[in-house]
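Bit of a strange request maybe. I'm writing a small parser for structure token strings and I need a real example to test against, not something I typed by hand. Could someone generate the tokens for this chain?
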Amino acid sequence: YTEAWDADKTSIHVMPDTPDILLAKANAANASHKLYVQAWEEAKKKGYDMRADAIPIQSAKASRDIASDYKYKLTHEKEKGHYVGCKTAQEDPKLALAARAMMLQNDRLYKKAYNDSKTQIHLPVDMLSVQAAKECQTLVSDVDYRHYLHQWTCLPDQNDVIHARKAYDLQSDNVYKSDLEWLRGIGWLTEGSVDVVKAKKAQELLNERLYRTRPEELKFTSITDAPDVVQAKINAAQISDV
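Reply from user aminoacidic:
Good idea to test on real output. This should exercise your parser:
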């Protein structure tokens, strides 16, 4: 089946400058990795000359030193032994800084200047604010606000004074209860009081002996010739065994 096609394949000739062939060659050149890195390979073969004091080299070294943990702590390791053997605390800069910070945070030292200058203030007596403060003190003063009754100055025979005394006597609790003083200490029997009488009446109402009368206590005489009595006698005689 494919013999004729195989024979024709070897006899087909395509011109090398056709557009399809040229496009395929261009695509092969673009996709070729060897051609892609050919310029870089040739540049590497030529070599390069980079000096030690070049800016990229200096920048890389500085970045490495900054990022290095050893270089970062080198200054601290060198300074650790310098604080040993100080004669006084004032010579140590860190101790002096801590003492300064403590003094700034100390509340007593912070308010020392204010407390010293607080008693050195001199105000004129006729100052407007001082006069206003005195007036306010007089208004809110309890001593000046209240005037007790015994401090009044009035004649004892004035009508308003007599009326006030009469009103005080009427309102006085001692005068109000003075008519009951004669009862103080007098004995009193509860017999005949309202509560006692009420209790007795309630007891009589609840007393079953007084409320009910027993049948055996009633005075009753039976009639001997009553029909029911005669019939009862006849019945008793009839059922008697004797």
